Amino acid sequence: MSLLLTRLSKSYGHGASAVHAVRALDLEVAEGEIVALLGSSGCGKTSTLRMIAGFETVTEGSITLAGRRIDHLAPASRGVAMAFEGYALYPPLSIAENIGFGLARGRSRADATRLVREIAALLDIEDILDRRPGGLSGGQQQRASLARALARHADLHLLDEPMGQLEPQLRAVLRGRVKALIKQRGYTAVLVTHDQTEANAMADRIAVMEGGELQQYGTPETLRARPANLFVATFLGEPPMNVLAAEPDGDGARLGGAAGVTVALPLGALLLGEMPAGGVALGIRPHRLRLGEGPLSGTIASNQWLGDQAHVVIDFAGRLLVAVSDRRVPARMGETIAFGFAPRDVHLFDCATGAALRHGLAAP
Description:
Shape: globular
Order of helices and strands: EEEHEEEHHHEHEHEEHHEEEHEEEEEEE
Strand order of the largest sheet: 6-7-8-3-9-10
Number of strands: 20
Radius of gyration: 24 Å
Helix content: 10-25%
Number of helices: 9
Structural class: alpha+beta
Distance between the termini: 45 Å
């Protein structure tokens, strides 16, 4: 079922002292789509999820699910299944009873039991079905909460940090299984997470939030290739995007301020002669920096081999830049290294507003 959020807002308090958790959020989730609300703590993603579920009142705006407005309905009347970050399991019931809670209506006991065991096997918790929540680890309880939500046939599935308590190896395995199940059953789902790897792996589209506002909404590929602003550009990606001040210098661009270097990058022509009053920032992803060649040079601040790639930190004009290579880099701390980049890999941003100006530079 499709979900539509229109100018959705949440404030706590009144007047000048009010805290705005979510500001005028417009978002559409298509039927059968998995959408991730991604951001750091306090960005408004969980408040948004709780408003959709009915656990927080809406200050302004509306929520429409499957063509009907639901923001005035009680949580039980909204047709929503939710996996809570805080588990919210029933202590007196076994894990099997928790997962199967509410499944008896419309199906036989044997069918409900079979479904519970299928979901438990998917999440690797078959061995704890007879146990109660109190004696389980946080990760086991979290998987039980997720299993209960996935077992339900609902108009919308809401997943609040559903794998935050799991060790990395298990999380990587279950991401694929859970996504496959959601797609096979045709569920529409909204996932809240602070983990960009989880968002990229599971979501069809990602809504990046900060300060209660939507920063950008799009596919993982679009967000990475064409970030709407500096926040999205530096929030997404591991390691994050490198950013340098850039200003016109003759026919080129001076990078890194007064202590920097001029390179053959005609900013004036690229920006059609309109330089923002606040200046321009140049962004380049670590994987796109070329080590050992190019017009720039800096001092090696660190050189780490992580088993499958090298992370090299370069001190350039007082700014630390990170370069990533898929092979070892034979350079030691304190040594000078040359580096560069291709214009097609560069992003330009307005320093004053953070808005993106150009992606993938090429002279007009």
